[in-house]
Amino acid sequence: MSKQTLRIGLAGLGRLGRRYAENLARAVPRAELVAVSSPVEAERAWASEALGDVRVYDSFEAMLADEAIDAVFLVTPTSLHATQIEQALDAGKHVFCEKPLSLDLDDCRRVAKHAAKSASRAMVGFVRRFDESYRHAARHIEAGGIGRPFMVYSQTTDLADPSGAFLEFAPTSGGIFLDCSVHDIDLARWLLGRPVAKRVYSTGTVAMYPPLEALGDVDNGVAICEFADGRMAMFYASRTQAHGHDTHTDVVGTAGKVSIGRNPRADRVEISDAAGVRNTVVPSFYERFAPAFVTQARHFVDAVLDETPFELTIDDAVEATRIAVALRESLRSGQPVDL
């Protein structure tokens, strides 16, 4: 594109959607947030007050008809992603979609084919790829710093919520592996050089939230993924941590190991007293990855305007979903799943 600014419409103004909107409005220099949409009146009222001179629509379809929009950001329920991506591409808009691509693997594959034929471009966001610590580790691995990487351990564990508010969204989340571990799955493939998954196995337990049992879901899950070239990955996901949000990853190679986020902390303060030595921990994923969300948005905008490649493809999103869906199947069947 020859334009210097990308005019963006954002769909979805829930907790994460508001963060995206604020970033696009104030922290992405080459982006112009011109419109937002939400079917929820309170969310539209928030946008009118917080975002200034931005057009506010009550439906995605109405916003999509706005000819002044060059690209859309989708921060909507996962069940809508596949259809909305296709609608946006057909309307000539570029698309950024929050992960996951879909809860249904056939939908993912259909979207990938649709995007491949479109003149517009689409990217699914896996924000940890844009975190500077993970990028540093990736550069070190690519430079041969740990020899040949052959194993990844990666976890996504959230602070326990005594209110159980997340249970409202659990029926449409796709389960703990699609909702949480899909990030770790994508990281493992990225840091190991995109190997092809061969077999997965998962198990889990309900430690704090019994309503999950009726959904075939758990609040703590562990998984193993074997890749066709002999490499492997292990994942742990939890919704019950007492200390805060704790994401970390280890990559083991033939000449060393690299660890990212091994000691979770909110800042550089360490307190020593009669109770011992301690530090505080961020309460949620957004506080941990806030700068990465900005970097990710800037990457999308710059890539569209400068006609440069995205750092990850729709096929990466399809493969992460394929593995996560197989882990969900293994959890419910109690058996390994061949891919």
What does this protein look like?
- The structure is a single chain.
- This protein is an alpha/beta fold and 339 residues long.
- The chain folds into 2 domains: 6-125, Rossmann fold, CATH 3.40.50.720; 131-291 and 319-338, 2-Layer Sandwich (Dihydrodipicolinate Reductase, domain 2), CATH 3.30.360.
- The protein is 36% helix and 26% strand.
- The chain contains 9 helices and 15 strands.
- The strands form 3 sheets. Strands 12-11-7-10-9-8-15 form a 7-stranded mixed β-sheet.
- Helix 7 crosses helix 9 (314-333).
- The protein is globular.
- The two termini are 39 Å apart.
- The model has no long low-confidence stretch (mean pLDDT 96).
Output the structural class: alpha/beta
End-to-end distance, in Å?
39 Å
Label the CATH architecture of the largest domain.
2-Layer Sandwich
CATH fold name of the largest domain: Dihydrodipicolinate Reductase, domain 2
Side-by-side strand order of the widest sheet? 12-11-7-10-9-8-15
The outline comes out as globular
Q: What is the share of helical residues? A: 25-40%
Please summarize the sheet with the most strands. 7 strands, mixed
Question: What's the CATH C level of the largest domain?
Answer: Alpha Beta
Mean pLDDT: 96
For the secondary structure, the number of strands is 15
Number of helices: 9
What is the N-to-C order of secondary-structure elements (H for helix, E for strand)? EHEHEHEHEHEHEHEEEEEEEHHE
**Rg from alpha-carbon coordinates:** 20 Å
* The CATH homology group name of the largest domain: Dihydrodipicolinate Reductase, domain 2
> Which spans have pLDDT < 50 for at least 5 consecutive residues?
none
